[in-house]
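User: Please predict the structure of the protein below. I'd like the answer in structure-token form so I can feed it into my own downstream comparison script.

Assistant: Understood. Taking the following sequence of 126 residues as input:
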Amino acid sequence: MMKKNSFLAPLFAALVFALPAATPAFAAAAEAPAKAAEYTDEQKALLKALDSELTRFDAMLAKDDDAAHAASVRELLGAFKARRDAMNKVAFDQGKYDELRFDINIEYQRLAQWLLPTNSSPARKS
């Protein structure tokens, strides 16, 4: 019984991936030339603030003297910059902006905690 229906899963997957490409709307969107995104003054200010946050993150990362840790955080920073660049190419999306700002803030705080000197107290004598 299970053997008869085993061909349905690959067939279904093929249809799911092929169907959007066959629709006229999908084809028109793929062929449409990319327009430069236009932003309001408020959105421009938010994107400028995002750039300054990335610059601040980069400056703090320069203080990390652990090469392995710095390399992994540098990868995250590169991904954040790539997400920012992708945002600049399309219409402003507040949700994506908020997600990116949240991710940057979390990783910035983690880096700040990493860079703090250890706070160990001497052993107490009983």
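That's the full token string. DSSP finds six helices and no strands in the chain.
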